[in-house]
Amino acid sequence: MRVQSVVHILSLLLIFEGIAMLLPIPFSLYYGDMDYIALLISAGITSVSGILGFFLTKFDQDLRPKEGFAIVTFGWISFSLFGSLPFLISGYIPTLTDAFFETMSGFTTTGATILTNIEILPHGLLFWRSFTHWLGGMGIIVLSLAILPFLGVGGMQLFKAEVPGPTADRLTPRITETAKILWSVYALISLAETVLLMFGGMSLFDALCHTFGTMATGGFSTRNASIGAFDSMYIDYVIILFMIIAGTNFALHYRALTGDIKSYFRNTEFKFFLSIIGIAFILVSIDTFTRYNVIPVAIQDTLFQVVSIVTTTGYGTADYEMWGFSSQVMLFFLMFIGGCAGSTGGSLKVVRIYVLFKFVLSEIVRLVHPHAVVPVRIGDTVVPRDALTNILGMFITFVLLFVLGVLIMAGLGLNMDTALGSVAATLGNIGPGLGNVGPTDNYAFIPGLGKWVLAAFMLIGRLEVFTVIILLSPSYWKK
Amino acid sequence: MRVQSVVHILSLLLIFEGIAMLLPIPFSLYYGDMDYIALLISAGITSVSGILGFFLTKFDQDLRPKEGFAIVTFGWISFSLFGSLPFLISGYIPTLTDAFFETMSGFTTTGATILTNIEILPHGLLFWRSFTHWLGGMGIIVLSLAILPFLGVGGMQLFKAEVPGPTADRLTPRITETAKILWSVYALISLAETVLLMFGGMSLFDALCHTFGTMATGGFSTRNASIGAFDSMYIDYVIILFMIIAGTNFALHYRALTGDIKSYFRNTEFKFFLSIIGIAFILVSIDTFTRYNVIPVAIQDTLFQVVSIVTTTGYGTADYEMWGFSSQVMLFFLMFIGGCAGSTGGSLKVVRIYVLFKFVLSEIVRLVHPHAVVPVRIGDTVVPRDALTNILGMFITFVLLFVLGVLIMAGLGLNMDTALGSVAATLGNIGPGLGNVGPTDNYAFIPGLGKWVLAAFMLIGRLEVFTVIILLSPSYWKK
Q1: Residue A171 confidence class, pLDDT cut points 50, 70, 90
Q2: What is the pTM of this model?
Q3: Which residues pair with A381 in a beta bridge?
Q4: Residue at A167 is within a domain
């Protein structure tokens, strides 16, 4: 492990985080809140820590994939540690456990909250809380389209060729180039959403915060009642549209913005993604339509919750725990699907679910014709053997981790629904789950140990499982 | 498909089933019940159907693997259809849905019941009900150790070399030889259990019925309170011992009986099986020990329920739904493990869980060393590539079917716990589940469609998933 180089990069990232903490300050001042002080102090501590780390280490050797895993995992952890300072220093979230949980939930674009009353927070903190989503989303897009393909994690090597950029063997130049392109796309679409939300009557502050939450498929709101608080059909549909956009591969958006609109409909994963939303909408509607008096409202609410869960956003406009068991079970399983690869959506990802189905079909054909060669394809592309086993490995690990998590949470005294819901919602980076962590509840009551476990699950789920798990393997640390 | 040959074999099996229906009659007569009439009529219908089928078809061509799948699947279905006749004709289970569910539950060694009061059934029917378990268990042992290895289902080819016998390429002679050996072992151990249970004060009738339920890891009892009705520490521990024996690979018992006792402890799967029981016992004890006043009783009850669930038997001596959430969740996940391959236990099987763990570890090592070759091993044996992908395929299909089942059951109005519990308990062939199908409940209240779905899940789970699923594939039916 080239520790110096790793710490060097992490320090550079911290300087960047410190600067980012200054952004909420104008809102704090505008609304006459006092939280700008906590933000200033936090920004200071974070940047100085970064600067110290930066100058005390040197980037003496280039990075190998091995260092990549460490930078990504420890990057998210250090961002969450320093990012919780504004909450701690201001006193609005007085314990490290809660502040770390909330910030990890932000940077992993999960959206699970320990706050029982969001609206008492001053504007600077609310902005920072939502802004952690947006920064996390930036990280995820670059991670999934530029870094993980080279690390070979979770079959992401399938997407190596998706984004243009120099195809050098060394990681750094390609990542930088790709990152610039993708971030422009991300920023441009975010701008569009902010403007559209302001047309719907939101203040600039609310529009920005909810854009951050949508584009990162995060789910933090500035209101206790989430998007439901705005009670606007227009806003609901704008958010639905942008949740779908955020759940789509950003490489496709890049192509569309450069003129190739049709690339969406040549993409097998995107078509499968829309089909999943469509089918889930119909199946949930069978139940919800009997519960609403006005069909357009039923459509609006059903579509919103389905899209919110599939894309792993977690915004709410209706309490699906008041719906039938079939709808709840449906939404629960949707939590395991998630967005497209290369989107900000979490969980297993649509393409992996697709590959799992194709793999099962290929195994059935292979039983009928034992000597046939039956490759798994996505569209016309044959999935290479190592990408396939990596996807299978990730799925199995995801399931095993889920089981482990539910056992731990039940061991801490949570009932079955809550244990299942809390682990699914954190591992899949959704936010609200089932039982006592449903859409109208929060994670405040979870025992301290449970909050740390769930925070770890957010990180593991967000970083495609293996990026984190690999650091626990002895073979990783062997020279 | 060589239909004539398939029907010919199925008819032969029906003649055998018809004869088997005569066995309960002495008990009916001894206890002065009237159900011998229904049993006689059923035996007549079944044998005559078998004889007709046998003489109207001829075994004109030898069997290929393709026909193997059909014989196994339709064999279990026709046994369950004809096997439900005694319940229907006697009127004790008046509807085909319920009678078929109960009989399929018997032959698949599941043990889920639709009876709300078992004890009103006459002795002949009770004996037949338990006897379907024992016959199903006979079928499963031969299926898993002699037939499936040649069909390449679920990685069972790993065990091709486990049992001695002629190694001809054609299926029939080898199966016949292997079956004889294994059935002798099965009968011998069953005899031992019957004698031991009679020492504990059971009547011959109860001892036989509970031996059938134990040795097949079935779980049908003659009492409403299951094994708890006998309230005997001795009987509890005898049943615990024989549940473990029934959950162990019968090839190991064969070796032990021919002098090689040590083969148990050279077997990786068996050691892993005992470890799972040990760890589960300890984890559940943490909760149960706080709930009992007398520690020996806590040990006895905890060990019994853990072994009963891991081996997929489903007998009960305590209501685990009165235990803590952690115990219930633990037992729920144990339902997915099951016994050893080549045992009468159901679910995924210990060896597959072991292979899944080893596969995940190998994927992690492969991420650290992308060019390393990291084979998955069981003990010293490298798992061949096709056996590995088959195991992965079965696991994924099992999980997908579980999700599908829970969605269907929730769609029929079952609550989350009951939907999860009923599907896990039927797909894994356990019997009692969670929620409203817990250890003190029954399946009577499930809507008709739900009973058929669950019966299908029992069959799919019992026949290692692919044996049934393959028949739904278009490529199977193509010439």
Answers
A1: very low
A2: 0.94
A3: A378
A4: yes
